[in-house]
Every structure is written in C-alpha cells, then in structure tokens.
C-alpha cells in the first residue's frame, strides 16, 4: 500500500485468525467462508485499484439471519467488518482491511417482489442495478438511477454510495429512488427503515443510511421505486469549439426551465477515446461534446428538442445531430457509457475524480484544471454529468513510473479543493471512501465532523464497521461524547490520525 494510511491492524485479532475462521464457518457453512490467500485475492481491491489489501477472511452469507449472527459475533469479539457489494467503488469504499472480515453480499441476488400497484420492487442488495430494470422492462417499467457501471454494481453498493448516473438530473439519485431498506446493525439487531409507503414517522434514518458507505450497518433488502418507461426518448449530439461554449449551453438550457433526462459532456480527449472504443460517429474536431436527452410524450419531446437546438446554435454549436431511431439514441450513449474503459486505452492507469461544482463555474474550473495539468505534467480527460455540475476528471498516469501515482493523487486533491473553493462539494456520487477521506476538513469544520461522528457512534459504538473510510480522524465514541470543540480546536490532539 502507498500513500493513504489505514487504521493499525489489531494484533489480537490477527493472532486469533484460525479460531475466528472456524467460528464463522459454524455460522456460514459450506463454501461461504473463504480463507485461503488464493481464494481471497479477487477481493483485495475495489475499482480504486491503486490500493490493495488482503482481508482477514471473506464471508459470503446468503440470509439475513446469517448476516445478523456474523455481526453479533464480530461485535462481541471486537472484529472489524467491511461490507462489499460488487466491488466497483471508485473511492476505495470496499477496500479490505488486514484484520477485518470482508462481508460479501453477492449471494443476496434475488428479486423478492414486484409491486406495480405501489410502483416499487423489493430486492436483495446483491442484485445488480441493471438487473432491476431487466426484471420489469417487459412490463414497461424501469429503475431510473443508471450508473455507467450498472451491469456490475449492486443495488446495496448504490445505497452505500448514493450512486447516480446520466439520468439522475431529471429523476434523482439513489436517495430519491429508494423507499426503504432492511438494515442489520453491528449488534446483530435488524431494523426496517421506510417501506413501500412514501413517508414514515420519526427521524428520517433512511436518508442517513443512504450514502453511509457501509459505516452504519449492512443492508439486506432494498425497496426501490419503479418508473414507467417514457413514451419517447430522443437525444441530441452537439459539438462545440470550446468547453466554455458547451458549459454556457448547459447553463442556458437549465436556466430556461428545461430539465432534460440527462446532459453529459466530454472533452476532446474523452471524445477521441470513446469514439475509438465504440465507433458511433462522434465528431473528432470539436473541443467539447454534449449529449442532451429529452423524454416524455412525443409532442413535448419534439417541442423541447426544437428549443434545445435553438439554444445550442445560439451557443456556437458547430455540429448537431438529433437521434432518428432508438438504435441511434443508444449509439449516442454507448460512447459516454464506455468512456471510463475507453480512456483506459490512453494510459496504463488513471484516477477517476468526482467533484461537484455550481454549473456556472464550469469554464473557470476547466481553465484552472488545464493549468494544474501543466503543473503536474499529467494529462486529464474530462467526462461530466454536466447538468448536475458533477465532474469526472480522469487523470492519466503510469503507476510503473516513479512518483506518478503520488503526482496524480496530488493533482486530484487540488481539483477537489478547487471544487470546494468555487462553492461545490467533494463528491457527486462516488463517495468519500479512503480516496477523499483526508480532504473532508476542506469542506467540513471540526464541529460538522464531530456531529457526523456522533451519528456514526449511535449506530456503531465500537467503530467496527468499515473503519478508516470517510472520516479523517479516529475517535472512540466515549471520548467523542465528552468532546467539546473550543475555538475550532479539537481536544485529544494525541489521538491517532490516519
Ligand atoms: C467503470 C465504472 C463506472 C462507474 N460509473 C458510475 C456512475 O456513473 N455513477 C456512480 O454513482 N458510480 C459509478 N461508479 C462507481 C460504482 O460503480 C458505484 O459506487 C456503485 O454504487 C458501487 O456498487 P458496488 O456494488 O460495486 O459496491 P462496492 O464497491 O462493493 O461498495 C461500495 C460501498 O458500499 C458499501 N456497501 C456495499 N454493499 C453494502 C451493503 N449491502 N450494506 C451496506 N453497505 C454496503 C461498501 O462498504 C462500500 O463502502 C463506476 C465505477 C466503475 C468501475
């Protein structure tokens, strides 16, 4: 491991490994416990592949009762636990720890109930995001949030990261599309938050859990909202001579009161990489490309297409195509959805950043990013959820070249600082994980962070769930309870900071 520090391994747990493995086998018999180095290797990292670590042991439960028994056992024996869905997190959220049980939720792969009358489905957390849409599309329904990783990522992971996708501008993120969860606490107790109904009494703990990155409990069931597929969906592919013109176009579309189903933007490097990957006819002589999708009744779509086209021409668009068939519309999206793997061809390694800015700051941020690219001597290809102001700069580097990973991480940190400086936030949809953990104080003051930690303590008093992620400092909950921040200075300055 390089760079970021993780909590020190608990030597007492490491020393008891054989006994712990045997105890876990008693809870999950058969092939549900993987303890060999070879068997655990596939779990050593998530999609933040610069960081790898073998876990203490991998456990693959298949029932809620097994999850509850594992967590109760770990709580009683002070053993850390890292929940994992499909392991596609880009922020290191499911990175194992040497002394922690890696709790893989892949066997929770069933759709339990499809309820069109209540417009929802109840699914297990290991079901893939796309698997939900596949299960209902023959009846004209779908699940709206669509991360580019949707073929692989699990709905449990989407809940963990509050994931988004190209259609979240109009339809919202995971938090707007999940109605309820079943959650197993670290004590082994099982709670249900929300359900098929729209609102519940009491504190809105469902919102606290969505986006909590495996730090508060293990999700064993998810109730998702289903939407009726729109009658029509059509997309425009619009090329611009500068990124500023494209940014201006996005601001004017939204400013005019139009909320497209999605507005995505790619810069020259990303366009070239995507086109080489999928060959769908992206223009190669433009600096920025927008994909704007409109959906709804046919007449509304046709009207809005005309409005968007007029705005785009006014913003100096140099190429403009409107999809004439479903096949062509999907072709427009194919390049964007494959942009990350496509950029992988430009360079041996890349870091995918994820910050959000107010839309109007896009030109400024792009020009500052170009300066940073020169400063660090590293190329950056840009893919944005432009409508949401959510940036995904892909920093290209070669891990085999001395110092390039460090430079890429420093470059990425500067981009995220820039996002906060212009009034944005550290993450749009990929979560904090280990990747942005040490940047949290750029965005939150000590009081903010202490209050968030108190929420963590209310769920996980011993700090056993996914430690080392999200929060830049370690505090025992008892100490946190006595903690008073005075003059912006935290007490216990000698506590381990990792
Ligand atoms: C090529 C590529 C494209 C991507 N595109 C997008 C995109 O467009 N939008 C987007 O938002 N993300 C995107 N991602 C990031 C990633 O796919 C999402 O964050 C996804 O939600 C992770 O799901 P997962 O099942 O892989 O979860 P994991 O990586 O396994 O885990 C993610 C987090 O959730 C926690 N977790 C997982 N399951 C549970 C559970 N059952 N209970 C409690 N906690 C749990 C983990 O502890 C971890 O903190 C992309 C990733 C890749 C590799």
Structural summary, described in words:
Helix content is 35%, strand content 19%. By secondary structure, it is an alpha+beta fold. It folds into 4 domains: 11-104, Uridine Diphospho-n-acetylenolpyruvylglucosamine Reductase, domain 2; 111-228, 2-Layer Sandwich (Uridine Diphospho-n-acetylenolpyruvylglucosamine Reductase, domain 3); 232-341, Alpha-Beta Plaits (2-Layer Sandwich), CATH 3.30.70; 347-435, Alpha-Beta Plaits (2-Layer Sandwich). Strands 12, 13, 14, 15, 16, 17, 18 and 19 form an 8-stranded antiparallel sheet that branches. A hairpin with a 4-residue loop joins strand 18 and strand 19. The chain is globular, with a radius of gyration of 23 Å. Bound molecules: flavin-adenine dinucleotide. Flavin-adenine dinucleotide is lined by residues 46-47, 82-90, 93-94, 105, 125, 147-149, 153-154, 156-158, 160-161, 163-165, 213-214, 218-219, 340, 429-430, 466. Residues 51-229 form the FAD-binding PCMH-type domain. GO terms for molecular function: FAD binding; oxidoreductase activity. This is FAD-binding protein. It comes from Xanthobacter tagetidis.
Tags for this model:
498 residues; alpha+beta; Uridine Diphospho-n-acetylenolpyruvylglucosamine Reductase, domain 2; Uridine Diphospho-n-acetylenolpyruvylglucosamine Reductase, domain 3; Alpha-Beta Plaits; 4 domains; eight-stranded antiparallel sheet; five-stranded antiparallel sheet; 19 helices; binds flavin-adenine dinucleotide; FAD-bd_PCMH; FAD-binding protein; FAD binding
């Amino acid at each position: 491991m390089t760079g970021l520090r993780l909590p020190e391994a608990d030597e007492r747990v490491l020393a008891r490994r054989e006994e712990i493995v045997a105890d876990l086998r008693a809870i999950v018999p058969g092939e549900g416990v993987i303890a060999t180095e070879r068997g655990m290797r596939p779990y050593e990292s998530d999609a933040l592949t610069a960081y790898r670590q073998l876990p203490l042991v991998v456990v693959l439960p298949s029932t809620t009762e097994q999850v509850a028994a594992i967590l109760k056992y770990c709580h009683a024996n002070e053993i850390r636990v890292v929940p994992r869905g499909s392991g596609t997190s880009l922020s290191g959220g499911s990175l194992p720890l040497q002394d922690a049980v890696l709790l893989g939720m892949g066997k929770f792969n069933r759709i339990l109930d499809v309820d069109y009358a209540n417009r929802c489905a109840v699914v297990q957390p290991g079901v893939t995001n796309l698997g939900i849409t596949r299960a209902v599309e023959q009846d004209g329904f779908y699940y709206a949030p669509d991360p580019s990783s949707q073929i692989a990522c699990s709905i449990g992971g989407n809940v963990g990261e509050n994931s988004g996708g190209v259609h979240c501008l109009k339809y919202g993120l995971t938090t707007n599309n999940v109605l309820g969860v079943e959650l197993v606490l670290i004590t082994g107790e099982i709670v249900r938050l929300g359900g098929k109904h729209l609102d519940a009494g009491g504190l809105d703990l469902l919102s606290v859990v969505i986006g909590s990155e495996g730090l508060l409990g293990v999700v064993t069931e998810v109730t998702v909202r289903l939407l009726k597929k729109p009658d029509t969906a059509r997309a425009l592919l619009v090329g611009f001579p500068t990124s500023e013109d494209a940014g201006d176009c996005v601001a004017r579309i939204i400013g005019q009161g139009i909320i497209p189903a999605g507005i995505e933007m790619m810069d020259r490097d990303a366009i070239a990489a995507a086109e080489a990957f999928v060959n769908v006819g992206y223009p190669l002589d433009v600096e920025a490309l927008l994909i704007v999708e409109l959906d709804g009744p046919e007449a509304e779509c046709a009207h809005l297409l005309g409005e968007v086209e007029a705005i785009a021409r006014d913003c100096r668009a140099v190429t403009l195509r409107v999809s004439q068939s479903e096949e062509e519309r999907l072709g427009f999206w194919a390049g964007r959805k494959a942009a990350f793997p496509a950029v992988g061809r430009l360079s041996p390694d890349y870091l995918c950043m994820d910050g959000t800015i107010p839309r109007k700051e896009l030109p400024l941020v792009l020009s500052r990013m170009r300066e940073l690219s020169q400063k660090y001597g590293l190329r950056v290809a840009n893919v944005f959820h432009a409508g949401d102001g959510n940036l995904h700069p892909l920093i290209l580097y070669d891990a085999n070249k001395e110092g390039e990973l460090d430079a890429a991480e420093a470059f990425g940190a500067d981009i995220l600082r820039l996002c906060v400086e212009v009034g944005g936030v550290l993450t749009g949809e990929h979560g904090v994980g280990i990747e942005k953990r040490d940047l949290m104080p750029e965005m939150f003051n000590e009081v903010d962070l202490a209050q968030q930690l108190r929420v963590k303590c209310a769920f996980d008093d011993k700090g056993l769930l996914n430690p080392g992620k999200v929060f830049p400092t370690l505090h025992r909950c008892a100490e946190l309870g006595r903690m008073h921040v005075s003059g912006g200075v935290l007490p216990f300055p000698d506590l381990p900071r990792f």
